[in-house]
Structures are given as structure tokens and as C-alpha cells.
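Changelog entry: the GxxExxY protein record was regenerated in this release. Current contents:
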Amino acid sequence: MINLADYDALTHQIIGCAMRVQRTMSSGFPEVIYQRALQIELQKQGIASEREVELSVYYQGEKVGARRADFLVDSRVLVELKAVAALTSAHQAQLLGYLEAFRIQVGLLLNFGAIRLEYKRLLKNTPIP
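Regenerated C-alpha cells:
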């Protein structure tokens, strides 16, 4: 069973970095611009992260391929970025699928396309509301 307290400080730091990017840049840019800016902000804060990291995808314990994730932070939190008007259940389903396939417990969904930063922390095997 996952201990969420082990992830609280890190996910709050990531969200704080994303808020600084959103305040500085506002909305209206493509996702890749926010990705690059977030990478700079994470580095400035001393948070270990990999951008566009290729991770193995598993099905029933067997590797079936690989996909790129926007960020893997501290080798334990998967971060997916969006630049859309609003997050949808499809975005959440994508991140939950990635968590399962990549065998990662916690993910953050960050949307820079809205007027204010939207974010959701999702846990592997969590039902979508």
C-alpha cells in the first residue's frame, strides 16, 4: 500500500513550480513551451526530473513496448502536461493508464491552458470521478 505522506512534499513542490510558470507565462502557448519552462523551474528548485522520458509499458507483467512521458520527477512521480481549455476525464484516464503501464504509483496532471493552472494528483488504480 502506498503512503501518500511520502509524496506530499514532492507533489506540492512540483505544483508550486507549475504555478510559477503559469504566473510568469499565462496561458496561450503550446504544451511544449510549458514543458521547457517547467523543466527550467524544476532545475532552479533543485528537483530531479527527466523530461520526455521513455518508459517501458507492461501488460500482465510483460513488457509490451514503450511510451514517452512528459516528466518523471524524482524517479517516482509521473507528470503529464496539457495546454487545453479544461481538463477532462479522458486526460485523467490517460494518466491513470500511464501509471498502470509504467508501474508508477503517483501522477500529476497539469493544465496550463486554462486561465489558472489546473492540477490533479492521481493515484494508480483510482476510479475516475
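The chain has one domain: 5-123.
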